[in-house]
């Protein structure tokens, strides 16, 4: 079974998906005239635009919720893995993916806003919604929603819970069932409070989590700041095969950098649009730009913090792809002996500067990173449950989802979940394929919305949205939103 699932996973997460993600990012960057550069100042300004209402959350709350999904274990373990198998040059390719992916994130988030709906008093939207309303292919939207519920609601949360439980056990010697029960109780306290409580939780926890982690990394980097120019030079030399020491992993630097960049910032995967749709804004482009900025935060800030911390302390290994052949050494570089690839690199880097502190801090960081990801998974699953049950004005389906996820979290905490992770990866990979195909086919409304926003900005207006102005006739919720914003 594991071999079969692994084979399917390898097909879905093949180089074709990597090329598709990169190519889509480049295409949308060109089509939007590199909005990720032109509107960078506007992105930052809009972070604090829009207010929370009974129906939707503020722009900053939506940003925090999306970062809860983007900023996860991939920012610690994923970066370490990219460097281990792709060398320091993998960092550059992660940056490139983030830069191009910001345009993809804009398109999918803007579409989610355009085609969002209201269910049980809350704004809901995402790929399933814009696939059905924008493309007019309901079965495609239903299929996406089913895959999303299974993946985000039933498989991946258990794996994240397993990471939390193992991290706490390694650092504090606490039994996994105890930490599992603790996670279940906190999870229940948050999600039974509804989307407003989820937004409030992430609004406070995510900035604290990311800023705290980056501050520790900055301190470690500052201690050896004289090495930073050489480290940056090494990243660029390795990325373009100009460093003889890492020439053997030049191709792998691209492969692993792109893979881990996509996995971390999620641009194009179809996860963040669910959260983007919940924002209460006067124009869809506002949340599109905010979500573009979240890609920068995830990769250019948090991932870079991990990468520079590893490189500047030298606490990492780079595996030799030729290992196993005659006279081949196992490592091209070995600075973290007897340390398995993953969070251990980061723990070693921190311990080298603050002895005895690294293991505890990384365990705590992993807890917050993984737990907030579980909360994001819940919201994604709940949004797709809402899509599938729109004709039933009853919250019972959401209560069932909460109960299922509580069981999954507890089970995942006390059991190994490798198979569930592989199956979950298949679900996420399918979401990415479905979503990218959808936004390529449905790009016109998002691009038209961008032109409409820029036109109003040039007139000195605070842009508002009328879908009929851009030729969209089935986004009826916006007539109500516009009236409310004018009150």
Automatic annotation (TrEMBL):
GO terms for molecular function: amino acid:sodium symporter activity. It is a multi-pass membrane protein. Keywords: Cell membrane, Membrane, Symport, Transmembrane, Transmembrane helix, Transport. The keyword Transcription regulation does not apply. It comes from the Bacteria. It is found in: Cell membrane. GO terms for cellular component: plasma membrane. Its main location: membrane. PROSITE patterns: NA_ALANINE_SYMP (PS00873). The chain crosses the membrane at residues 12-30, 67-86, 92-115, 136-156, 176-195, 204-225, 231-254, 293-312, 360-380, 396-414, 426-450. Signal peptide: none annotated. InterPro entries: Na/Ala_symport. Belongs to the alanine or glycine:cation symporter (AGCS) (TC 2.A.25) family. This is Alanine or glycine:cation symporter, AGCS family. The lineage of its organism: Bacteria, Pseudomonadati, Bacteroidota, Flavobacteriia, Flavobacteriales.
